[in-house]
Amino acid sequence: MTTAQLSLTHLIRPSVLKEGKPPVLFMFHGYGSNEEDLFSFAPELPEELCIISVRAPYPLEPYGYAWYAINFDADKGKWSDDEQAKESREKIVSFIDEACDTYGLDSQRITLLGFSQGTILSYAVALSYPEKIKNVVALSGYINENIISGDPSKKDFGSLRIYASHGQVDQVIPPAWAQKIPETLSALGVEHVYEEFPVGHGVAPQNFYSFNKWLQDKI
User: Fold this and answer.
1) What pTM does this model have?
2) Cβ of 75: how many Cβ atoms within 10 Å?
3) Cα-flanking dihedrals φ and ψ of residue 149, to 5°?
4) Which residue spans within the chain are E strands per DSSP?
5) For 108-131, what is each residue's pLDDT tens digit?
């Protein structure tokens, strides 16, 4: 089911809860993909969750979408448009508020699940606005400190939980970038789990099983 009422295109799987406001999981896909990609996980995730998979706002040629531009021809490797990333961060925050109001969701039990570029934005949202986010499932990404709003060291992360994972042979986002995540989160006092799996830039079955089990305990 899709809707044109909210600011970003998305797919939604309703919660099975019959009473009260359901917890919600927002999905954010990677560069060049769309909202249907991660939504394939939905049938296997906890049924009490309302699941909303969001399409990034910037179309790419010949197909797919991005949360921000990446220049693959840059002299010093890939170059990311941090200003555009910040704009997408704020679009996500506004969309979360809109969706919770529109669908009657529990704004105190919000989980973000991202892959690659969607993970980078999920970190940016959670570390910028920790009062809004309860859990993050961060797959195959890294923390870009340049797109976090405010000074993270002055924020309260006591209610935030993060599951992070990465492929040991990822050729898109170097494992060394992801391996900095535990140190960064520990310094901020964020409760977290970090795991690696013997795959490239993707989600292995054992990775899915691991984060799904973690999520069931954190909803």
Assistant:
1) 0.94
2) 6
3) -80, 130
4) 10-13, 24-28, 50-54, 58-59, 65-66, 70-71, 79-80, 110-115, 135-139, 161-167, 191-197
5) 999 999 999 999 999 999 999 999
